[in-house]
Amino acid sequence: MAARAGIVVTGTEVLTGRVVDRNGPWLAERLRELGVDVAHNIIVGDRPDDVRDALGWLASAGVDLIITSGGLGPTEDDLTAAVVGEFQQRPLALDEDLEGRIWKILEALTIRWPDLDEEAIRRSNRKQALVPAGATVLEPVGTAPGLIVPPREVGPPTPGRPTPTIVVLPGPPRELQPMWRTAIELDAFRAAIGGATVYRQHMLRLFGIPESEIANTMLQARAAGIDLDALEITTCLRRGEVEVVTRYEPPQQDVYDAFAALVAEKHPRELFSDDGTSVDEQVAGLLRASERTIATAESCTGGLLAGRLTDLAGSSDYVLGGVVVYSDAAKVALAGVDEGLIERTGAVSVEVAEALADGARAALGADVGVGITGIAGPGGGTEDKPVGTVCFSVSAGHGSHPPNRLTRRLVLPGGRFDVRDRSTTVAMHMIRRVLRGETGG
Amino acid sequence: MAARAGIVVTGTEVLTGRVVDRNGPWLAERLRELGVDVAHNIIVGDRPDDVRDALGWLASAGVDLIITSGGLGPTEDDLTAAVVGEFQQRPLALDEDLEGRIWKILEALTIRWPDLDEEAIRRSNRKQALVPAGATVLEPVGTAPGLIVPPREVGPPTPGRPTPTIVVLPGPPRELQPMWRTAIELDAFRAAIGGATVYRQHMLRLFGIPESEIANTMLQARAAGIDLDALEITTCLRRGEVEVVTRYEPPQQDVYDAFAALVAEKHPRELFSDDGTSVDEQVAGLLRASERTIATAESCTGGLLAGRLTDLAGSSDYVLGGVVVYSDAAKVALAGVDEGLIERTGAVSVEVAEALADGARAALGADVGVGITGIAGPGGGTEDKPVGTVCFSVSAGHGSHPPNRLTRRLVLPGGRFDVRDRSTTVAMHMIRRVLRGETGG
Question: Environment class of residue A235 by beta-carbon count within 10 Å: exposed (0-12), middle (13-18) or buried (19+)?
Fold first, then answer.
């Protein structure tokens, strides 16, 4: 039996979406790697009753471990440590050594903001040094310490039933993540997860087919005698790609291999990743391996493709830069697009996309150029070129040879955000094909 | 008593973070606007037992309404309608009219992908036309219809207790959002939320202070006799800004006004928004009102600032474009930065940031130019210029007058993602100050 865990993400700002939660998913993935099964991730507001209810439900559902994130800050609405202490029936006490260590960290802050009231900071942070009896302190990465709070002590003369171990972590990902790595090495943590089963997980990524085709392939797999019930398969659409994630116990490796082989056979052109790599990583790898550089000229995506290409550390090795040519005048001045061409075809055309790709290469002296021009909406659509119409071109030059080129005109679904985001995905896949020399068909 | 609701977001891809959930937060905000209290947003994987458990818990917690998102697709792991039907004890039946309407939508798809197996599509989508007895169908926006499934029928001779009304919505936000707007107008929905209290909600946004200062201001508010217990205040850090959101019943308007006035008095420079507007919206408004145009020259942010400036619809009215100058050669060629200057000061310096801002203005003929150069990491840091060092400059020209300019050098915390994202926020606030003529101090 795999150990089971629940996650409780606290924060009204997360519940209402002013902040996107990055911790719940991150923790779920880390727990899976440890072979711990995650059934629920509960997002609750900053109300003590709601946090207590969530802990109570997960405890009654029989999980072995609860991870909380958030609610450890200096303000009044940060109350996780107190609620967890009470839930585990372990009274809070001030840990003076810890208070001193937190103060050392805060001193640096008061230097950065010299006009703050030092006493106010001391007061509002003292509560961060309150520790439930028997809990293990996880040293602060920011200013808030984390906690591993052991189960409620039960048995005669204390009635009740055992509760899960609760790991209390701060909300900021940059504090939570290193603290998690510390926590999982500690005995208090290992004891809670016991002998967890190790699962394997693999992801296939496809581009250019609807999700229903995968449903069809799964039916064919069953018809071919592949025991899909031995696998836990989930499919989802993400940024225009279909992801097929399969989780299974090690003895089912042969079943998975047969399934993966069938997907590869049915969708040879669409399957672009069978090792979990993203198209972004593949593009980076291809550019590095061929020692080629890249440059962009973007209209409707307004810099998002350049931003995406430079997301990866070390991208300065192959990204030279780009131009954001939102206005027609900028297309002419920065990307060298012929003014007459824009007049003849309009700014959104495959011809202008090609001129942008070539212009990006020329302006930055790059080996590969990418041009994007389109109508992201909500305004600007016409009958011929409805909102969502986007023209793409990728050109790769080799000395005096004519460029190796791929050009597409698509109508992408969705609103402004979707059209812009999806456009960067289409462009990444076109760059990948050009770098692999797949410009036919 | 306000009506209460719970949200259940299904999808292993969401639980494990391969997809960021946008629906839970969006629904929470819409429910709040309707005066419905949201305590919990539960994210569950695609396992029927886990979805059923989540429904059961929310029902036992006494909510009046459950909203689900996701699990309505064509693949085998999409099972929400079946689980909800079973939970409400309402058997599923094929709605043939609905099946026909879905088929009409799918025909368009088969035209787009002509080599698909039509029969496979029909088969894998027939299940989307299965409807629980007594449920109201919400017409498909994509291919999946939504459902409003009324409570379980109880009372003699059927034992049990009433369950909440369950609104079943598809996962893709572009389908969920219009369908939600349809759902809330229907009697089946209105009946579930009954006489909900209407709350007011206001947001204050501050930039340039730590969250602990707000904790201190709240203590001062209590000391000044402002009854903060009558308000529900939450504070959070988001992209480098502090957001203070207050929710209250209409009779507490005076208490809120007193609190808001105190925050404004204590933090006159840092409080930049008291009406919920974002700095992005303010910058757009200021550019429009003064009929000025803007251009960017970005190094470490690689186009993210241009991408952010063009997020808003209609931004082509004032964004001319920009240059992404990742390499030093690009800084010289596209932004006209003096090569000798880069040699003397390094590519990351306030001098180069100023040259980039001026170069952006010149290259695009814009009124306002923004330059950003820094070290996003993880590599590239030195003792003098550690990872996170970013130099910013915003210059606004008026004919032959010397530019109105603001320049800053900061060391931003966090990893590569945080440094790049935070840099765009710092730049937006500097643009705002320059546009407001606040370049002193």
Answer: buried
A222 interface with B at CB cutoff 8 Å: no
Pair A255, A290 in one domain: no
Question: β-pairing, A146-149 with A165-169?
Answer: antiparallel
* Cα A361–Cα A363–Cα A368 angle in degrees, nearest 5: 15
Question: A217 lies in a domain?
Answer: yes
Q: How many CB pairs under 8 A join A and B?
A: 333
Distance CA(A83)–CA(A8), nearest Å, equals: 12
A16 and A152, same domain (yes or no) = yes
- Provide the whole-model pTM: 0.72
Which residues of chain A from 249 to 278 reach within 8 Å of chain B, CB to CB?
A: none
Q: Do B77 and A234 touch (CB under 8 A)?
A: yes
**pLDDT one-digit tens code per residue, A51-97:** 999 999 999 888 899 999 998 877 777 889 999 999 999 999 999 99
pLDDT tens figures, A107-150: 766 666 666 677 777 776 788 899 999 999 999 888 789 999 99
CATH of the domain at A241: 3.30.70.2860
Q: Which residue has the tokens 């009506």?
A: B3
Structural domain span for residue B232: 200-273
CB distance A16–B22 less than 8 Å?
Answer: no
Chain A residue at shortest CA distance from B239: A19
Instruction: List all residues 6 or more positions away from B377 whose beta carbon is below 8 Å from its beta carbon.
Output: A313, B387, B388, B415, B416, B419
* Strand blocks (E) in B256-358: 271-273, 294-298, 319-325
Q: Decide if A20 and B17 are in contact by the 8 Å CB cutoff.
A: no
- B307 closest CA partner among B293, B318, B296, B291: B296
Nearest Cα of chain B lies from the Cα of A402 at a distance, in angstroms, of: 24
**CATH number of A417's domain:** 3.90.950.20
